[in-house]
Amino acid sequence: METTIRKYELSASMSAGDVLLQHLRGVVGASNVFSGSEIEERYRSDMMRKYSSTPLCVVRPSSTEEVAKIVQVARNAKIPLTTLGGCTGVVGGGMCLQGEIALSLERMNKIIEFDVESMTMTVEAGVVLQRAQEEAESHDLLLPLDLGARGSATIGGTIATNAGGVRVLRWGTMRDMVLGLEAVLADGSIVSSLTKSLKDNAGYHWRDLFVGSEGTLGIVTRAVLRLRPLPKSAQTALLALNDFGCVPQLLRFLDASFAGQLSTFELMWADFYEFVSAAQLQQRQRPLPLGSAVYVLIETLGADVGRDMELFERGLAEALERGLASDVVIAQTERERANLWAVRDDLTEAYKPLFPLAAFDVSVSLKDMPHLVDRARSAVQQLYPCATMLFYGHAGDGNLHAVVKLDPNDAAAEAKVEGAVYECVRDLGGSISAEHGIGLAKRKYLSYTRSPAEVALMRSIKGALDPDNLMNPGKVLPDSQTH
Amino acid sequence: METTIRKYELSASMSAGDVLLQHLRGVVGASNVFSGSEIEERYRSDMMRKYSSTPLCVVRPSSTEEVAKIVQVARNAKIPLTTLGGCTGVVGGGMCLQGEIALSLERMNKIIEFDVESMTMTVEAGVVLQRAQEEAESHDLLLPLDLGARGSATIGGTIATNAGGVRVLRWGTMRDMVLGLEAVLADGSIVSSLTKSLKDNAGYHWRDLFVGSEGTLGIVTRAVLRLRPLPKSAQTALLALNDFGCVPQLLRFLDASFAGQLSTFELMWADFYEFVSAAQLQQRQRPLPLGSAVYVLIETLGADVGRDMELFERGLAEALERGLASDVVIAQTERERANLWAVRDDLTEAYKPLFPLAAFDVSVSLKDMPHLVDRARSAVQQLYPCATMLFYGHAGDGNLHAVVKLDPNDAAAEAKVEGAVYECVRDLGGSISAEHGIGLAKRKYLSYTRSPAEVALMRSIKGALDPDNLMNPGKVLPDSQTH
Fold first, then answer.
1. What gap in Å lies between CA A207 and CA B93, rounded to an integer?
2. What ipTM was predicted for this assembly?
3. pTM of the model as a whole
4. CB atoms closer than 10 angstroms to residue A190
5. How, if at all, do strands A399-405 and B228-229 pair?
């Protein structure tokens, strides 16, 4: 790798910080280095406005080679780097805490190759998810990853966090869509394996290790994504169940009946369903009456509108006959489909009265999910008897979400509620992060989910790949002294 | 972890080797330690009889804790360990080369928990694949991994090699079926993450790094496997195509038409099809006439025999109409289905006249696959103008297999043919191992597929996790001096 850096005029009277900025300008040009008051607000805060970031400067490279040179500059100056994607993370994984260099990949937003024959696309990390989705659709193909922040989240960010969403049941998380990867390591070297094949057993599978490592092992610069044929039909329904006991059987039955087509199986507990649908009553009717214990939103994606709907209706009728559900409504139009989805997905307005809130993203086995809900509910109620709590989640993936409205007058409320819920997760052997990652927010709870031996293994890997702790320091792993 | 080891009578006059054996007997009992002539042939050779192994001793632990104690004993004695599963590997990954301790997990063959509700099974590493498959089927569930050696390959071995097979297109490789993993590291610690959820983003995903690492990073002792609803219908057909050019389009068309149900898409070049079907003519008719350029075996697995066959026939008729295939035969009975599969899968007898042979397992993008076949064919023909060469593979995965009959009088033939074919793979940016791993056989070709930066990254990981090189030494990574 070429490591020579074009020198801007450096004078003997410059401070170390000024020298660093001049070196960085030498790599990316003066118009792509910002410091001090030049740094826009969007680089300083996360989507939830929970954290604030204090970058020393923001640098915007345009190529992998520039990223590698920036890493060399940072390494020489012993200044760490934090990589920014769409800044839509919810655990503070992209926050510069100690005056680091913020590396924004927004200019690395090219779709490098679209290979219809191999059903892959090769993209730079800064490509926005929605643009990648639309590019795939224009070729009659599907990039299955989808999530609410699609309009700003980037491919690099969804790789860094191993993003999930509402179709994991069928197509997996981002890790399952990344066939090839390129990254810049802490020593400035470029590792590149932009393969298009599903199978590649030549040595250690470092790609899957990097996916989900939240920028702490290196900087992802490009990826080859696996695409699927674009579905031609979507069948959507909302089901009501009298108790959770039927959920696992219902999932197995529908997954078997709709062989290969079941793409979504989203669970909403009664409290969530009542709260969200009530908040939306001015825009739309409540699709099923209140009074059931749980509600399930399901969707199949197929190839043939008429045939798939017939199969869908038949399967749901049989589920009712078998007593696996007590009521069901099937969307007959796109508008009805959007209405069903809104109850699960259109939460921004509905949640407003809940702020300040604590949000949870945890996983347990499906079997343990109702136990987790019961335990978490009573643990929180012990602390705050009247707290509003809503439970929902991607049941097919073992992923439970919850929100708890916090007492705005109790500064310790968030920590107390978090501790109480994560203790329940720990006791059931679950994970404190299903899809959002650890970042800053969950670092101190990592040991609830990972044994000391696992944390030690993670530290070994981090130490080997980033001995000087230059890559997004202070994230994922707890401080070794205190935990 | 408890590390005390029961002491057998150690006397001052014992050799270091005897002391080691006594310590090992102290861990697993005298009846589970073999040395010298007590070591049976099955521990000494691989399935292909290509390599021979010289273990110092064979140890058969019955629990993870015993494995951890054995690692401690080995570490104290500075003797490396090689883990043995079903000994069906084809690249020599399980060969003890330097008088190591052979750790056979054959006694760790318990199915620990079958969780129908979560659609998972938790097994010890020594469970034979076929037994795990049958256990799943008895609960109306499917463990999708399948391969010829199912009767002896173990779950641990298929994890170590990230086994593939003929259904990767739909359900992925072994990595995609491993939700939870437990392993013993080189320092004797036990890392255990026996999760049952599809989503777990709490820290580095070390599980996926261990899958496919061929026992060089640690010893896999248990796993949680993801299961699927057991399909109720299987539709199988053989298609003939006049040229390769239609293959990518045919795959996309069928994958889209059979939304979610296409499970197998196996490609056979004319030479392979002619050779194998000719060898089988005494047992069964050739299912389609010779004369086409490529043949494709496809299968869909679904939920409804009648409906799925109707969909299958309609899709294939449309493929013929569109000119994506020139001929097709659909199996109408289980016997016909077995006959179609035999052409692709029942190779043992057919291959006998080809020995000695060189076998290849490589991957490239689907688009490049015909180029690889052409280049490899002419490269081999330049060396041996009359060599018999057969090409086939899992086209949906970009995985090409080939066999080349070697001149038995030319001792250098294998190395020459290998070098020639791997050069073609390198030039097309492919992988020298799609599903078999690197082991011993492909170590010296790793740099054909992996850049120096990637190999350095792999060495960093290996060095961090196994600094004394105790875990299956001499496999996967080339010697650092020579490559």
1. 22
2. 0.95
3. 0.96
4. 21
5. unpaired
Q: Which residue has the tokens 């937003």?
A: A109
CB B94 within 8 A of CB B162: no
What DSSP letter does each residue of A127-181 carry, written as one string?
Answer: SBHHHHHHHHHHTTEE---B-TTTTT-BHHHHHHTT--BTTHHHH--HHHHEEEE
Residue carrying structure tokens 């979400």: A401
Report which DSSP code applies to B165: B
By DSSP bridging, strand B219-226 and strand B178-184 are: antiparallel
End-to-end CA gap in chain B: 39
Contacting residues of A for B438, CB less than 8 Å apart: 201-203
Nearest to B331 by CA among B233, B229, B232, B243: B233
Nearest to B203 by CA among A212, A435, A155, A94: A212
Residue A386 to residues A170, A189, A312, A382, Cα–Cα distance (Å): 38, 55, 41, 9
Can you count the helices (H) and strands (E) in chain A? 15, 18
Alpha helices in B399-444 (DSSP H): 413-427
- Which of helix, strand or coil describes residue B100? coil
* CB-CB under 8 Å, B431 with A200: yes
Burial of B12 (0-12, 13-18, 19+ CB in 10 A): exposed
> Any idea what DSSP says for residue A459?
H
Kindly provide the residue ranges of all beta strands, DSSP E only, lying in A198-340, ordered along the sequence: 219-226, 228-229, 233-241, 262-269, 294-302, 327-330
Phi, psi for residue B267 in degrees, rounded to 5: -105, 140
Distance CA A51, CA A84 (A): 14
Residue of B nearest to A200 (CA): B434
Q: For residue A216, what are the contacts with CB-CB under 8 A and spacing of at least 6?
A: A462, A466, A471, A472, A473, A475, A476, A477
Q: Which of residues 286-345 of B touch A (CB under 8 A)?
A: 301-304, 307-308, 311
Mean model confidence pLDDT for chain B: 94
Model pLDDT for residues A65-80, shown as the tens digit of each residue? 999 999 999 999 999 9
User: ∠ at Cα A228 (A265, B372), nearest 5°?
Assistant: 145
Asked if the model's pLDDT at residue B434 lies above 50, the reply is yes
Asked if residue B155 lies in contact with residue B125, where contact means CB atoms within 8 angstroms, the answer is yes
Return the amino acid letter for A194. Answer: L
Residue numbers in B near A168 (CB within 8 A): 198-199
Q: How many residues does chain B have?
A: 483
CA–CA separation, A254 and B451 (whole Å):
45
Query: b or e along A99-113 (b: 16 or more beta carbons within 10 Å of the residue's beta carbon)?
Result: ebbbbbbbebbeeee
- CB-CB under 8 Å, A119 with B252: yes
The pLDDT tens digits of the residues spanning A170-229 come to 999 999 999 999 999 999 999 999 999 999 999 999 999 999 999 999 999 999 999 999
Cβ contact A147:A163 at 8 Å = yes
Residues A201, B456: C-beta atoms closer than 8 Å: no
Question: Which amino acid appears at position B168 of this protein?
Answer: V
Determine contact: B222 vs chain A, CB below 8 A.
Answer: no
Question: What does the alpha-carbon distance between residue B160 and residue B207 come to, in Å, rounded to a whole number?
Answer: 11
Classify each residue of B289-300 as buried b or exposed e, where b means 16 or more C-beta atoms within 10 Å of its C-beta. eeebbbbbbbbb
Local structure of A445: helix, strand or coil:
helix
